[in-house]
Amino acid sequence: MDGSGGGWEATFFCQAGDEAIFRELNTALRSYREMSDAVIHQLSLSHEVAAISESLLFSDANSERDAPAALPSKRLEHIIARSAEALEHNVFVLEKILRPFPCIASSEIEVVDTVQSSSFVYFEEGIRAAADGSGSHRLAMYISPYNARSDLRDEDESYNSASHIITHLTRDWSADSAPIRKDTYGWIVDQLWAHHISADDDGTQARVLVPGAGTGRLAYDLVFAAIDDSEEEKSEPHYPFAVEAVDCSIPMATAAYYVFHQKEESFKMFPFVSDPFMNEVNSEKRYNSTYVPESSVIDTLKRIGGGTQQSSVQKPHLTYVIGDFVKLFSMPSRHDAFDYIATCFFIDTASNIFEYLLTIKHAIRPKGLWINLGPVQWHRNAQLGLSADELKDLVRMAGFDIVVWEVSEELVPYRHPDDVTGTRAEFYRPLRFVVRSRNENLLSPQHSLQASIEKLRATTGRKSLLQDHRAEK
């Protein structure tokens, strides 16, 4: 989006007030410092155990065969020094990134119908009848209220943690992780671009929604999908997609803001220094550093933000909304608002996948495309855990036609290509699909989606949309 000064800037919207933003950012920084202290403390205890063990068991060891530098205690002294230095550096960088930033206040959730007057309409073909009140009461007898366990709150706090910020920044914005992005974000961009150029193009920007945007790389790649660096300088690029990103995490959005407005130089990070001390082959690899964002991103942001593109009729358009996806995009004002919806490593975060499906169907226009990539590794707060085949049937029932549905044959590292260097590695064979929205309404005209979701949540023992979504995670 154009800034007031003529250069390009991404615009951020949020519902949280300044105090809430400051509190979450401060919590993330404090937690990282505490984690860093815990790492050094644990290493110090390990060093003490190693030194005592060596003095008792290796007192007569052959010095030529067991050189002092090879003893665990000596190695741990080196590891403690290197870890302290790297962790301190990360804290310094995080203090620069996780600062309050300009954010436009967005309106509160719109609830048109009351819960009492609404009914949730089941969308299995041929059934489409609302559950009567007595049936809902009978169902509720078997479903206890949704009480957030401490481990579920920990899961949500983990996503907001500074350690996760470093992981996401590394995966999204470092040159080292480009192969992973090619297999994930690249596939989504290619699918969206291929379907877009085959459709009628009237010259207006197609609207794209990116739920679960994290630190914003997929949204960025879609906004600048049309830029071709091989073109002559005098040619003006065409930006076909106006992108709206959304994420519930204030720290993630803050990191995205910092990257989008980082037009001077990349910053150095140590993404592996706080990893658990297990499954390592070469412990020195935990001190490998990376630079964020990669130089090509810096160049693009400088070119766009420096005013050299101001004669172009179309400009790149990116907004970022901080808030709960279901809460914000089930609004009546968001009905048929988007031509495309792109989700990556997102759908398995749903507490109830029905809510995500209905919200996506609500927000996308008829014949619009939903493009997805990611596992079905349902989070611990999920009330439903469907297989890929079961999800496929449900997507059809939700009003979508299948265009592409496949599970990747190739293994994709989650975080970094170097994940393969340990004795254990985390890989995925992501589910990839492209589906087209049918021109049909799932809910009866007199009932809003929000009211139906409220009814669903009340029946299945979950928190209201009107309450902070983080209270149940």
TrEMBL record:
Signal peptide bounds: none
Which domain of life does the UniProt lineage start with? Eukaryota
Class of this enzyme: transferase
The molecular function terms of the Gene Ontology recorded here are: carnosine N-methyltransferase activity
Name the UniProt key words of this record, in alphabetical order. Answer: Methyltransferase, S-adenosyl-L-methionine, Transferase
Entry's EC annotation = 2.1.1.22
Question: What are the GO BP annotations of this UniProt entry?
Answer: methylation
Query: Could you tell me which InterPro entries the record lists for this protein?
Result: CARME (IPR012901), SAM-dependent_MTases_sf (IPR029063)
Pfam families referenced in this protein's UniProt entry, alphabetically: CARME
Protein family per UniProt: Belongs to the carnosine N-methyltransferase family.
Name of the protein in its database record: carnosine N-methyltransferase
Organism field: Thalassiosira oceanica (Marine diatom)
